[in-house]
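[recover] target loaded
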């Protein structure tokens, strides 16, 4: 699933909007990490329009991680590094973006699917919140899947969702 600027419908509220620069940069980052997996956090805002929650992703960050061709997980130092990056980039801006999710690559040349470790990583209280986003991609086949966390009867579920890549000059 995914929607690009060509099919952009200004009358529709997409569950996820991702700045085009962010899409390109995380694809490039994941490609450079190959044959290893890659991991990073998504920065943005959770907003409402007509009582509908959507997430707007405006930046990304990463830090040290334990990575291999079949595994990627932030180290404790890596979590501190991406928090420091956010602090340095946005300083005391009271409207600065917040961590709203995670991206992760599976560079296997197949349709990417969650592993048990992926589910465990995203179940971390740092990321588990209604409206947070998980992007799973495979740079070998240009697969880019976007999932949103929804709270359903007290449980959190990951659901693949439509998304819109946007230019800062459109929205």
């Amino acid at each position: 699933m995914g929607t690009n600027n060509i099919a952009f419908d200004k009358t529709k509220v997409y569950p996820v909007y991702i700045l085009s620069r962010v899409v390109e940069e995380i694809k490039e980052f994941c490609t450079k990490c190959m044959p290893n997996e890659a991991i990073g956090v998504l920065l943005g805002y959770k907003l409402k329009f007509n009582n509908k929650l959507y997430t707007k992703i405006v930046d990304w960050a990463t830090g040290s991680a334990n990575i291999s061709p079949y595994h990627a997980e932030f180290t404790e130092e890596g979590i501190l590094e991406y928090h420091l990056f956010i602090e340095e980039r946005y300083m005391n801006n009271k409207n600065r973006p917040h961590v709203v999710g995670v991206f992760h690559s599976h560079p296997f040349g197949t349709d990417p699917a969650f592993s048990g470790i992926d589910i465990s990583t995203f179940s971390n209280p740092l990321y588990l919140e209604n409206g947070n986003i998980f992007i799973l991609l495979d740079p070998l086949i240009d697969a880019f899947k976007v999932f949103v966390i929804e709270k359903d009867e007290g449980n959190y579920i990951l659901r693949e969702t439509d998304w819109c890549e946007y230019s800062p000059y459109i929205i």
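[recover] notes: DSSP finds three helices and ten strands in the chain.
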